[in-house]
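About this split. The held-out portion is used to measure sequence recovery: a designer receives only the structure tokens and must propose an amino acid at every position. Recovery is the fraction of positions where the proposal matches the reference. Here is one held-out target exactly as it appears in the evaluation file.
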């Protein structure tokens, strides 16, 4: 009897963040997939249909807002929690308007992140 774990996709250009979130969320019982940029994020989201997407806003190439728009076009914009720096109110408002359902201000408490993930994607 195989128990299918819900999939969380982490999109961030910083390897340290990807590593941390992968470790913590895997430990919390999720199947974690990471992407280091927006293109990869959109591609993996299209293939894997994650239950939740944690996405950085400041990324080289396609930024978080553009990536979020692409995800929305594919019907996955409402699966996104954005991660952004303190003071980026404009970006937060824009992201919420596009369809992201929550945001985390970096540096965030990892327990807050876990709680938020569990709340929206119970496992
Ligand atoms: Mg970044």
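Reference sequence for scoring:
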């Amino acid at each position: 009897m195989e128990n299918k774990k819900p999939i969380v996709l982490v999109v961030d250009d910083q390897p340290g963040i990807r590593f941390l979130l992968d470790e913590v969320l895997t430990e919390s019982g999720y199947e974690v997939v990471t992407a280091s940029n927006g293109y990869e994020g959109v591609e993996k989201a299209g293939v894997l249909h994650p239950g939740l997407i944690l996405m950085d806003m400041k990324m080289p190439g396609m930024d978080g807002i553009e990536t979020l728009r692409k995800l929305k076009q594919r019907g996955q914009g409402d699966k996104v929690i954005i991660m952004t720096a303190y003071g980026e109110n404009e970006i937060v408002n824009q992201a919420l308007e596009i369809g992201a359902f929550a945001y985390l201000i970096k540096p965030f408490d990892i327990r807050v992140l876990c709680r938020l993930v569990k709340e929206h994607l119970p496992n």
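Annotator remark: The chain has a mean pLDDT of 96.
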